[in-house]
Amino acid sequence: MDLREKIDVPVMADLAASGEKPEYLFWVGCAGAFDDRYKKVTRAFASILNHLGTNYAVLGTEETCTGDPARRAGNEMLFQMQAIQLIELFESYGIEKIITICPHCYNVFKNEYPDLGGHYRVISYVHFLEHALAEGRLKPDLNRFANVRITYHDPCYLARANDICEPPRNILNMLTGHLIEMERNRHFALCCGAGGGQMFKEAEKGDKEIYMERTEEALKTEPGVIATACPFCMVMLTDGIKYKNREEDVKNYDIAELIALALKK
């Protein structure tokens, strides 16, 4: 798989115009669409979907924010306006299954949209990737990262909020024989510092930024790679690695990127 090649991504409106209905909506999310670093994760996961021949589509320009940041910041009215707008759009396309690469989007679709009438089968991409690997539909080069020390940072909205702790580790254990845990992990992992709307506000008074504390915990494992599964976590830990001047010897990759790189020929 060459990630430099052009990737054809089907768009929901185009398929609907020709009378087709895909099995999955691939929800890209704000970070996956606009953040330059996380666009690479979107591209990696779309490459994997195409590699598997998955019947999916994206909303493209019709995709808007889920409203999750607005609710976390306390603007309930804005959240409900954005959510209801999306629920109506999903209904117009008959969307039943949603795959998302953002834990925040996963959580709000799965746990909060039902209160407003939005009922879907919501699938985290780590579950999707774990199943594809377990079933043998994805066959990465197991030598690609076999000798790389990898530590994994649990996103709050996967581990604590939705009890998704083992799928990412199952994936990483397939890719490396050197998965090293941080002292605080799984349900007890330290937040990256961006959750709860903190990503969008100035730092408060204190002795140390949360992202620096978490980066230091990660670096104590002496990793070659810090693996993440959330756009907010990626931003914060990448900043931490840069602040520590370790970007030459420690890389921050999303789990989807690691698989895509292991598939690359």
Using the coordinates above, name the CATH class of the largest domain.
Alpha Beta
Largest sheet: 4 strands, parallel
Number of helices: 12
CATH architecture of the largest domain: 3-Layer(aba) Sandwich
| Terminal CA distance | 5 Å
Q: What is the typical, i.e. mean, pLDDT?
A: 94
Question: What's the Cα radius of gyration?
Answer: 18 Å
Helical coverage, percent range:
40-55%
The protein's oligomeric status is: single chain
The helix-strand sequence is HEHHEHHEHEHEHHHEHEH
Number of domains: 2
- Cα shape: globular
Strand content: 5-15%
Detail the poorly predicted runs. none
Total beta-strand segments? 7
Give the helix/strand layout:
Elements: H1 12-17, E1 24-27, H2 29-34, H3 36-52, E2 56-57, H4 68-72, H5 76-93, E3 97-100, H6 103-112, E4 121-124, H7 125-134, E5 150-152, H8 159-162, H9 166-175, H10 210-219, E6 225-228, H11 231-243, E7 251-254, H12 255-263
Helix pairs in contact: 3-12, 7-9, 9-12, 10-11
